[in-house]
């Protein structure tokens, strides 16, 4: 199930030993599963952005009001 949300703060995520991914401020689409949240967005240049983060980290970002889910 996907939902819309807004990133309100500068967010970054590093998947394992991979490169740091910047999740820009603005609208994102969020697909939640039992253990992760997949965030997708459109970059300023029109390119698609996508990352999956652990559900616990997504919940922490929401609790900190760094991400605001759209009302259901």
Q: Which descriptors apply to this entry?
A:
single chain, 72 residues, mainly beta, five-stranded antiparallel beta sheet, 1 helix, 7 strands
Are there runs of 5+ residues with pLDDT below 50, and where? Answer: none
Overall pLDDT confidence = 92
Count every beta strand, where a strand is a DSSP E run of 2 or more residues.
Answer: 7
Helix-strand makeup class: mainly beta
Largest sheet: 5 strands, antiparallel
Give, in spatial order, the strands making up the sheet with the most strands.
6-5-4-1-7
Describe this structure in words.
Helices cover 12% and strands 50% of the residues. It is mostly beta strands and 72 residues long. The strands form 2 sheets. Strands 6-5-4-1-7 form a 5-stranded antiparallel sheet, with helices on one face. Strands 2-3 form a two-stranded antiparallel ribbon. The chain starts with a strand and ends with a strand.
Concise account of the structure shown:
This protein is mostly beta strands and 72 residues long. The chain has one helix at 55-63; strands at residues 2-7, 11-13, 21-23, 26-32, 36-42, 48-54, 67-69.
Question: Which secondary structure elements does this structure contain, and how are they paired or packed?
Answer:
Blueprint lengths: L1 E6 L3 E3 L7 E3 L2 E7 L3 E7 L5 E7 H9 L3 E3 L3
Antiparallel strand pairs: 1-4, 1-7, 2-3, 4-5, 5-6
């Amino acid at each position: 199930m996907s939902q819309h949300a807004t990133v309100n703060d500068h967010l970054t995520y590093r998947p394992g030993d991979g490169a740091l991914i910047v999740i820009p401020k603005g609208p994102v689409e969020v697909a939640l599963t039992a253990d992760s949240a997949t965030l997708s967005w459109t970059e300023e240049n029109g390119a698609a952005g996508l990352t999956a983060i652990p559900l616990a980290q997504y919940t922490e970002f929401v609790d900190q009001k760094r991400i605001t889910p759209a009302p259901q």
